[in-house]
Design goal:
The protein is of the alpha+beta class and about 300 residues long. It has 7 helices and 14 strands. Strand 13 and strand 14 form a beta hairpin.
Amino acid sequence: MTTREVEHEITVAAPAEAVYRLIAEVQNWPRIFPPTIYVDHVEQDGDTERIRIWATANGEAKNWTSRRILDRENLRIEFRQEVSTPPVAAMGGTWIIESLSATESRVRLLHDYRAVDDDPEGLAWIDEAVDRNSRSELAALKKNVELAHAAEDLTFSFEDTVHIAGSAKDVYDFINEADRWSERLPHVATVRLTEDTPGLQTLEMDTRAKDGSTHTTKSYRVTFPHRRIAYKQVTLPALMTLHTGYWTFADTETGVAASSQHTVTINTANIARILGEDATVEDARTFVRDALSTNSRATLGHAKDYAEARA
């Protein structure tokens, strides 16, 4: 079997400890790494953990489970895919963060991998995916670590919750069946939903704004039946450089608490063009939050009607 070993590196204007922490805390990944859609902890035991990652590779959405060993003292993180997705037969590697000075560090990303049946075409596909994703990950890591302090006031999260006298399954079904949203939701003009891998959806939508204009968005969604649907928007409105979120469905004594959570980073470059020369970051935050909350609450309101009619 042919095992390929490759290394990518980048220099980051941030302390090594800060970089390590950002990579170690997986909930940050959809914000930091463009290919990552969602990451979930499967189990944790001291410095060893199992995580499940959903990400795009060469434009296709894939998912896999990795085991990680965190070495805080030496600023190293080893990772190994437990079950790889063809054409990958095996995949692993190491993050190594080296301090260059109090304000600068070198990040090295090592990979080793094999293709199913040693297939040359499969290996070429993996070579391309690893090279593209590694460059993308490291460039994004550099950018996001260096901007972490500057962009702190540009990134924010919020949540809307609606209480529904129905079942979590019915509410989940309404959100999951996004291919029917153009019939069920007034603000959705057209929908294209594909789910080639069960539980992994690509959702493209044209939605209507209050002023009657429509805009197109594309998201990848990961579904956990009747509990949660997580997503990452990859075609973004002009005022955002990031939009991730999740829908959750929690049983209560009287029915279900259905929530829509959003994490957003404001695109400051477009504030003046969209909101006017005098508009501030705070104006943009308010505008984006209002727009997203309005759509989320409308969707949850229709989900409530749907579920309560079936209760």
